[in-house]
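Fill-in record for Glycoprotease 1.
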Amino acid sequence: LVVLGIETSCDDTAAAVVKGNGEILSQVVSSQADLLAKYGGVAPKMAEEAHSQVIDQVVQEALDKANLTATNLSAVAVTIGPGLSLCLRVGVRKARKLAGSFNLPIIGIHHMEAHALVARLIERELQFPFMALLISGGHNLLILAHDLGLYIQLGTTIDDAIGEAYDKTAKWLGLDMSRSGGPALEELAREGDAESIKFSIPMKQHKDCNFSYAGLKTQVRLAIESKNMYVENTKLLLTLIMCSNAEIPISSASSQDRRSRADIAASFQRVAVLHLEERCDRAIEWARKIEPSIKHLVVSGGVASNQYVRARLDHVVKKNSLQLVCPPPKLCTDNGVMVAWTGIEHFCMGRFDPPPPADEHEDYMYDLRPRWPLGEEYAEGRSEAR
Ligand code: ATP
Ligand code: FE
């Protein structure tokens, strides 16, 4: 069994070839980092164009690196949601074209399910049921995975996801966004004092497993604005004191600036992750009432590649006598491997669609699901939260 996975739900164009036994034969990711850095976010139309430009090349490279041609494939898996429909379309069109030409079954994949299930590729001991915390650019989910395709949503974000908060904070701090804001912020935070600014932890009074990052974003913004005012005032003061011709000691001002930005980064990160820790603690309690046998918490999605996040969650998991399963960073951020692997899991259960017609028109109404919840909401959660 050999499956090609294609992923274009957001800003990365990714493809990979994975074998039924979990062997990764190839993985290719083309990111739109330059566009992200230039515009500070994902603009759907531009992202669609960028995907269209590279999709053929990315898929071909994945096949070449695996030393295969499409005739050797057993099936094609492709993300059909959630995500930007213009972007999803590019991947789905490519997948169907290929599947149609080579008479291959096709498997439509849920992007967040793929983020969770890739953990089963790297940790073979990981059996259902397990818990997952999925933290990325657009999602903050706590789920209980009963079985393949059977998920209970214990918590979700009521506004922004943590990745969005990392990205905005990084942008406001003027960090290099060419790799997305998260890694740059993680790096800067290492230099800062995490206790220096007392941001408040979101949703303290809500005894549920939901998340909120919009308020923390506002707190950070205010802190940055007040520091900026301070720096501007200091410069002005120095200019006045030293009289116009004197050289302003820029180096010390900017190192001071870096220091205070690092303090903001570290303080933000501490509270952003404390919020995750608190929610995980409660979710484990809830999940154990439904499935006392759970042994693992999977942490995946782009933000799970952060070392501080991993260390803090490892602590929570150990305290609760569970095991943490966190995929390597390259499999936490968007990739084709997770799509191919999730395809393999479904394929093995007989869940796939027949090959599309070889002459399918490009305007065919694809089954895209830009908004697609993962599993049922945990109804009792609402009463427990009271
Ligand atoms: P979603 O999965 O919700 O559809 P996405 O696919 O765009 O969103 P991912 O690729 O899964 O997102 O994750 C990208 C997010 O992860 C970005 O917000 C990015 O800043 C964040 N991220 C990546 N690396 C790190 C890191 N080291 N620390 C913090 N955040 C990080
Ligand atoms: Fe993602």
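KEY FINDING: Residues 250-290 form the longest helix (41 residues).
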